[in-house]
Structure formats: structure tokens, C-alpha cells
């Protein structure tokens, strides 16, 4: 995660939320880091002097320092492996991971998160979402029985 964040902020200064969305996009939705992963990682990189922060309104924007650039040079092989793995995750030509299904899963995931965040304390809403997801899981599992 550390090297991936360095790579992303080397491309352009980014906010924590931007990093979350970019990692989601680069993994084809296979991984969406939580703020509880991103922000501590950014703080560690700040402490190490590898990134710097600039206030950007109410947000903080992170960019690479000279030490961060040196770290990327030193870890070039590891970064190449990370980039290759991300490219594999983006590969929608694989028959076991068709793009249309992957996009539908992403849309579903976003809908669930959006609905939960709209009123996270609503127990009835959470139960309805859980029931819908369980029903979808059951229906998909039964496709294998055909």
C-alpha cells in the first residue's frame, strides 16, 4: 500500500478520498481501501518524510517529496510488480471476470454503501438490504444447480 500511495501521489497531488477511488479504479473494483487504511498510511508516509501535505480548503492534499522520489527509485522493481498486478486486475478479457459482471458488482456495491450511509442507524433499512443481498446470493448460487 505504501508504494502504491507513493506512486499515485507522484502522478499528481491527491486527497485521501481521491486515493481510495483511484485504487478502486486501478483494481477494477477488486479492492477498495477504507479510510482506516489510507489515512494511517498517509500519516506514516508524512512521518517518514516521503510525502508532504498542503491544505486544500477543508481537505489536505498529499504530494511526493524528494525523499519520496528517491524511495520510488529504490523500489522500482517492487513498483513494477505492483503495476503488473494492477494491470491484471484491470484485464476484463479474462473469461472468469467479464467486464459487464464486474461493472454490475461495482454498481451494486455503490448502491448498498450509498443506501446505508443515507441512514446508517435505520435497522429496518439494514435488514431490507441484507435480505435483498441474501436473495441475490441464493439466486446466483442456484444458477450452478441448473
Describe, in short, the structure shown:
The protein has 146 residues and is mainly alpha-helical. The protein contains seven helices and two strands; from the N terminus they run αααββαααα. It has a two-stranded antiparallel sheet with strand order 1-2.
Topology overview:
Elements lengths: L1 H10 L4 H11 L8 H13 L3 E6 L2 E6 L1 H9 L1 H15 L8 H20 L4 H21 L3
Antiparallel strand pairs: 1-2
Task: State the secondary-structure class.
Answer: mainly alpha
- Low-confidence parts, pLDDT < 50 over ≥5 residues? none
CATH architecture of the largest domain: Orthogonal Bundle
Instruction: Report the end-to-end length measured between terminal Cα atoms.
Output: 41 Å
Give the full name of the CATH homologous superfamily of the largest domain: Winged helix-like DNA-binding domain superfamily/Winged helix DNA-binding domain
Largest sheet: 2 strands, antiparallel
Number of strands: 2
How many domains make up the coordinates? 2
- State the order of secondary-structure elements, H for helix, E for strand: HHHEEHHHH
Radius of gyration: 19 Å
Helix tally equals 7
The proportion of residues forming helix, as a percent range, comes to 55-70%
Query: What is the level 1 CATH name of the largest domain?
Result: Mainly Alpha
Globular, elongated, flat, extended or rod-shaped: what is the shape? flat
CATH topology of the largest domain: Arc Repressor Mutant, subunit A
**Mean pLDDT metric:** 86
Q: How much beta, percentage-wise?
A: 5-15%
The neighbouring-strand order within the major sheet is 1-2
Amino acid at each position: 500500500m505504501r508504494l502504491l500511495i507513493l506512486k499515485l501521489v507522484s502522478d499528481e497531488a491527491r486527497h485521501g478520498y481521491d486515493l481510495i477511488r483511484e485504487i478502486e479504479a486501478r483494481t477494477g473494483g477488486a479492492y477498495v481501501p477504507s479510510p482506516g487504511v489510507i489515512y494511517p498510511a498517509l500519516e506514516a508516509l508524512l512521518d517518514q518524510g516521503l510525502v508532504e501535505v498542503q491544505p486544500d480548503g477543508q481537505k489536505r492534499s498529499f504530494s511526493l517529496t524528494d525523499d519520496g522520489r528517491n524511495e520510488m527509485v529504490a523500489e522500482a522493481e517492487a513498483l513494477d510488480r505492483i503495476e503488473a498486478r494492477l494491470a491484471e486486475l484491470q484485464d476484463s478479457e479474462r473469461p472468469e471476470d467479464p467486464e459487464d459482471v464486474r461493472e454490475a458488482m461495482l454498481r451494486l456495491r455503490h448502491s448498498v454503501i450509498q443506501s446505508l450511509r443515507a441512514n446508517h442507524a435505520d435497522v429496518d433499512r439494514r435488514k431490507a438490504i441484507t435480505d435483498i443481498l441474501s436473495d441475490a446470493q441464493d439466486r446466483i448460487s442456484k444458477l450452478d444447480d441448473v
